[in-house]
Amino acid sequence: MMGRKIFAEKDYYVLDNKVVPYEQFQLCVDQKDGFTIRDEFIPQIIELAEALLGKEYPILKASEYRNFVRNGNRDIYQGKYYMRREDILILAVAEAVERKGRFTDQLVDLLWMILEETTWIIPAHNFMFRGKEDVRTVLEFPVNYSQDEYFIDLFSAATAGNLAVVYYLCKDILDEVNPVLNQRLLYELERRIIRPFLTPAFHQQMVNWSGVAGNKVVNWNPWIISNILLVCALTVKDYYTREAVVRTAIPMLDRFPSFYAPAGGCEEGPSYWGVGVGSFFDALQILYDMTDGYINLFQDPLVKNMGEYVVKLIVHGDRVLNYGDCPAKLEPDYLLLYRWGIMSESKYMESFGASKLQGELPPAEQFIHNFFNPHRLLRGLAAEKAPKTEFAAPMKFWQEDLGIAGTREYEETGRGLYLAIKGGYSMASHSHRDLGNIYVFSDGKPIFLDAGKGSYTRRSFSAERQKIWSVRSDYHNVITVNGMVQGIGPDCRAKDYVYDTESGKCSMNLTDVYPEQAGIETYARSAVLKDHVITIEDHIVLKEPGEVQFHFICDSRPEQEPGEGSFFVLHGRRVDFDEGLSYTCEVLDKTLPETKIIPGLWDVEDLYRITLKNKMPVKTHTYILTIR
Fold first, then answer.
1. What pLDDT, in 10s, does the model give residues 471-520?
2. DSSP conformation letters of 486-498
3. Cβ atoms within 10 A of the Cβ of 211, count?
4. Which of 542-564 are b and which e, b meaning 16 or more Cβ less than 10 Å from the residue's Cβ?
5. Residue 12 per-residue DSSP state
6. Is residue 249 within 8 Å of 198, Cβ to Cβ?
7. What is the pLDDT of residue 203?
8. Which band of pLDDT confidence, cut at 50, 70 and 90, is reported for residue 131?
9. Tens digits of per-residue pLDDT, 423-452?
10. What is the rounded radius of gyration, in angstroms, for the C-alpha atoms of the chain?
């Protein structure tokens, strides 16, 4: 799929001296007060910084960097690496607002530690492309110690963004300590980020996320580019370099929305919306500031729909339709959505964000630890209060580009039944084998859930990914046919979507989702919530009589399991199923390093899998399951 290039449509590739010089640059030009740290945040930030005084920071060991190649572990090194970056932001903001010197020594120590790191690229991303773009070698050690960085990954760009914020807030404070601090900081930003970004010879190494070869891009693209733009905005003083960075960034950034359908759905799922689509919005805001409002795409309908998508997927509280590599709990950035709603004139986003904020600013702790997107830290510190308001959740939604439909009984998210069904295709970024997956909630509690993402290891993005049960289709609310789980490939997709706008009923053809060995002639699934009853219908035609299993993932064992009748009870809801099916229930394995944290994210000790299996072989049958 290839869609619009919205920057090109507006002739933004040609800048004509529209980039604001460094001396005239201002953050938050869309706000009447510009960038001003709100008084409410100052005591909170000071308290956070005081808790860091005297803290010792562990060294980053070579053996810990090697762990990813040797045993797949990425958490030990990353934990120490993240700590440095989260803490330096707290210390920098605290010293910038207090200016008593209490936090300066520790700020300088942390700054020097980060500047001295051989690389800012994390071990899992320390690879070199050789030849074709999809051929890469994972390196045990960084190899850029005597030259400009040859690659920019998510976290080297984020680190650079963090240091740009430190410079922006504390450059005069650092100069008073010793001018070499700022000189070294600016040198490392240029060596590791700016020069590689502007060097075409290095672009082959960045082709996967930059899209310079015409390839598809995902969250890496706006996530990295937004941080590079922030570095440029806050630290680059040479006008021609500033303009060159913006001129290089725009065609790359334009690749990201070009792979979105007009409906604006994020195939990577709601957790990657924040770092993908959310970072795209960050980049749009930075470009808006860098050009004093000249680059302005907020009114574009695609940009608006890309923002509204994540609000549609809210179930209740911190529960969302967590397909793909999305954890069980997720709260999108309410301030970001509120700002986006205002700038795009979307009452939907604006009212949702405002309803969560309820006339108050969020605690500083919610955004000051976000070193991944330091632009949002600055925006958060300068946030204006949103008015108190209520949000009415949509009773129905249809995300046609992704094949996702949802229906709820009431506008109040924690009341009544909620139903959603997901289509899609197997090759989507960060996808699980979950085509046709069903989500059911009752009064905000899960009946049938998607276990979601646990912890990433080397297996998470390797040929062994399918050994992680939370990724496999037989651990989603879908079927297994003749022992065959869902396949993977360009033709493995749901199709023939039919959505009834009046009832909210959604149906899809899932025949091509399973491999040929499954022996499926045709398979269609539909789901509807009507008259306080959810009905799931599966029409299956096999080439020969065979076995069909229905799987359902739950957060508890049913309160009442099948006895003489073909039903069970979960969270007070009765689930009736076909009398030709037998019932079993098992606790799910939580010993894998990738899945051990998953039950805790659902606030339980264990998750369970219910399996309904046909008692006798069938060739053609329509199975109906109801929840009331």
1. 999 999 999 999 999 999 999 999 999 999 999 999 999 999 999 999 99
2. ---STT-B-EEEE
3. 22
4. beeebbbbbbbbbbbebeeebee
5. T
6. no
7. 85
8. low
9. 999 989 999 999 999 999 999 999 999 999
10. 26
Say if CB 551 and CB 478 are below 8 A apart. Answer: yes
DSSP states of 82-120: HHHHHHHHHHHHHHHHH-SSTTHHHHHHHHHHHHHSS-S
Tokens 């709260």 -> residue: 331
**Do 57 and 86 form a contact (C-beta atoms < 8 A)?**
no
Identify the residue whose tokens are 């009748």: 565
Judge whether 482 and 471 are in contact, CB under 8 Å.
Answer: no
Cβ pair 40, 91 in contact under 8 A: no
Angstrom distances, CA of residue 549 to CA of 203, 274, 433, 480, 511? 48, 35, 16, 5, 15
Q: CA 596 to CA 590: how far, in whole Å?
A: 4
Which residues neighbour 238 within 8 Å (Cβ) at sequence distance 6 or greater?
none
> Where are the extended beta strands (E) located within 344-475?
396-399, 404-408, 417-422, 437-442, 445-448
8 A C-beta contact, residue 21 and residue 242: yes
Positive or negative CA dihedral for 400, 404, 408, 411? negative
pLDDT band at 563 (very low <50, low <70, confident <90, very high): confident
* pLDDT > 80? residue 226: yes
- Cβ contacts of residue 613 below 8 Å, gap of 6+? 547, 548, 549, 550, 581, 582, 584
On the question of pLDDT at 134 being above 60, the answer is: no
Q: How many helices (H) and strands (E) does the chain have?
A: 19, 20
Give the neighbor-by-neighbor strand order of the sheet with 573-576: 495-499, 506-509, 520-530, 533-546, 618-627, 573-576, 567-570
Residue 287 CB neighbour total at 10 angstroms: 26
Tokens found for residue 512: 């091509």
Q: pLDDT category, 466, cuts 50, 70, 90?
A: confident
What is the number of residues in the chain?
Answer: 628
DSSP string, 275-324: HTHHHHHHHHHHHHHHTTT-S--TT-HHHHHHHHHHHHTEEETTEE---S
Whether residue 293 contacts residue 429, with contact meaning beta carbons closer than 8 Å, is answered with no
Helix (H, G, I), strand (E, B) or coil at 479: strand
The answer to whether residue 12 scores a pLDDT higher than 80 is yes
In 3D space, the residue among 396, 414, 416 whose CA is nearest the CA of residue 573 turns out to be: 416
Rounded Cα distance between 249 and 239, Å, is 15
b/e per residue 440-460 (b: at least 16 CB within 10 A): bbbbbbbbbbbbbbbbbbbbb
Which band of pLDDT confidence, cut at 50, 70 and 90, is reported for residue 132? Answer: low
Where does residue 75 rank: exposed (0-12), middle (13-18), buried (19+ CB within 10 A)? middle
What would the pLDDT profile of 527-553 be if each residue is shown by its tens digit?
A: 999 999 999 999 999 999 999 999 999
Distance between CA 58 and CA 544 in Å, rounded?
63
pLDDT tens profile 250-269: 999 999 999 999 999 999 99
Helix H or strand E encompassing 523: strand 520-530
Encoding tokens for residue 606? Answer: 């264990």
Give the residues across from 529 on adjacent strands: 534
When the pLDDT of each residue in the chain is averaged and rounded to a whole number, the result is: 95
